[in-house]
Amino acid sequence: MIREFAYRSSLFAAASASVLLIAGAASAQEAQDATSVDDIVVTGTRVANRSRLDTVAPVDVVTAETLEQRGSTELATQLAATVPALNFPRPSATDGTDSIRPATLRGQGPDQTLVLVNGVRRHQTALVNLNGSVGRGSSAVDLNAIPSSAVDRIEVLRDGAAAQYGSDAIAGVLNLRLREAREGGGATLTYGQYITDFTGFYGRDDKIRDGDTLTVSGWQGFALGDEGFLTASVEYRDRDRTNRSDINPTLGRITGGQGDAQAEDLSVYLNAGIPLSQGWEAYGWAGYQKRDASAAAFYRTPTDATQNPDYGNGRKYPDGYLPLILTETTDWTAAGGIRGNVGEWGLDINLGYGSNKIEFGAENTMNPTYGLSGPTEFYAGSLEYSQLVLGVDASREYDLGWHGPLNVAVGLEARRENYKIGAGEEASYARGPVLVAGGNTLTFGSRGFTGFTPSNEVDEDRSNVGVYLDLEGEVTEGLTLSGAVRYENYSDFGDNVSGKLAARYDFNPNFAIRGAVSTGFRAPSLQQQYYTQTSILYINNIAYETGTYPSVSEVGEALGGSPLQAEESVNYSLGFVARSGPFELTADAYRIDISDRIILSETLTGTATAAPGTNARTIFDLLAPYGASAARFFINGVDTETTGLDVVARYRSETAAGNRLDFTLAGNVNDFKVTKTPVTESGVLPTPTSLFGRQAVARFEEGTPPWKVVFQTDWEAQKLGGTFRLTGYGDVLAAGATEATDLELGNALIADVEARYRFTDNVTLSVGADNILDQYPRQSLRENNTTGAFPFSNFSPYGFNGRYVYGRLSLKW
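^ thats the sequence. predicted structure below, dont judge the formating
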């Protein structure tokens, strides 16, 4: 009843006045007059010069100016502050996910939103999110690998678009448009830290200052010839870790490290274009980022008999130890192409490459089987994903005697992907010479993050080719119809056909309705198909492997695994656009049905001591021939239904004196339901066992906010300016191991404030605070946090670091 009331209330609140600051003039664009709020978009339509308010499907435009107006310099955090349908939580103690965090759109998986850069498919990260966080089981695009200083604007298509763009575009599309400038430039220096008060259950009562973050960024335009351009962007960021762990009641001191990882990154992006002869143009871009991060794992106690043993002559860590997980991420991208006209056809041919490599390590730790003199730092192996994509797009207009021309677009996309796992050093996974200490069998492998073994190494690739046809035209006055069909062939799982039909009717220049129905798909990623990592457990003093296995491996097949197939979706949307001078209002209801979602199964465990004929004994018998005692794998089989509403309202007032006032109110309501879950195949176990349990279902259904509303006002008056933002989040559930340990994090209202003073036209000083009221989510139940290490849930949509205070000096020339 409470949830239904919140759902209905938020629908009413969002629809009655509504939604988001998503437009504004980028500094390189011409100033708009007070009644013009349109932006030309290229996402979701292949018709030239279509504005975001004239599209058949809902498209938001987030400008560089909008992204800047908050304390965080991370692109994904900036975007989540602006688009209510997008969320970007800040998990901790989730291995590589601490430093490569996934974003979600409309509550769907992070890998169900397609990311483009200048219209070309962006590569995914090599990381598989395996632990208890939003996006578990996915491999998504790392938005923070792209510096915000390189971005001119981001177009957010909130509609299914697989028929137009291919795999992954189930929830929608993010298209990052890079800066294009042949002169001028800018630079910013941003410094901030968390200044917060935290009181824990176990006695921590601190005024905390941590998470110091320094960001230096800049961009410069250069002329190439008479009309060409080269825009270079550079960004350096250095962030200290935060820690919100409480006092450990057993030891009387803080032993955990829950918070943001320490991270240092350097990004460089180039974007260029130059006219050729006969109306043709060459273009291209390249990007690089190097990110080093260090995140806390789980604390090992001073008396841990298997992970911090007494060797008879002492312990390596008499006070216990907190392992640190190291990730060194290198991200490369480069693309180039030409575009022009062949007869009446506009032609665009491009080739893009991208790669993401993550090298893992661990420090302040040990491999217990290497004894007192063993190493404390380890190289734990690597993950690497790369993609090569060729795109050919052609379009032209036909005059069929309709009210407007019919735009016909056809194209081809060919892609080759590769995925690799590299082994760590031997000491990171091996069994050393010391097997027993103090009568206890020791665990082995580097604690905190066990290295990839040689048996985990893979080097797999696949290819696919897709072709599409896209039609759009104004059939009669006011009525625009569009349709698309796409055929894809993958070398590993076969064919797929997707289609889309959409329509828009403009009753007059101020009001229109629009709607669409489409089918879509998401191909299983190579990461989901081939990721494997094993560690060692002892049963009766015999070592057995336990871990994550490919579904088509011997272990996976023994448990009923089979080759992964594509997820399939059906999207429906219906909405309206209303505008009058400087006021605009859009509302779009949607439904997303997805079948055969790919998920990471529950861990199936066995034991040799279980009674014959029981599941535990059967699993042991199935896995023992492969040297394993517990396993999980990726599998199709979850069906979901999502219904929701996006509403966006904006009013912009600008005077001749240059004063500007901008009001926006944006909201998203999202209701997510799991309608089917998989169980073990018949005959595998005596009693069918769920492969997607209650906790996993709850994470899907209630792990993201059921509603989110953003109110923002921006004003400029002579030399002064400011931004005030309120963000409301619906109650998120942190699912426990049992229903009794579930935790509702509570509704939240977060206030952000920024004030700006312009010394000259080229120099601006900004100061502000994100979460100025220092709000925290509800703390974890004591029974879920007996050591004080994890007072907060990873599912908090706004994190758990408290108030962030910052200053920014901006220059432009």
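The first strand starts at residue 40 and ends at 41.
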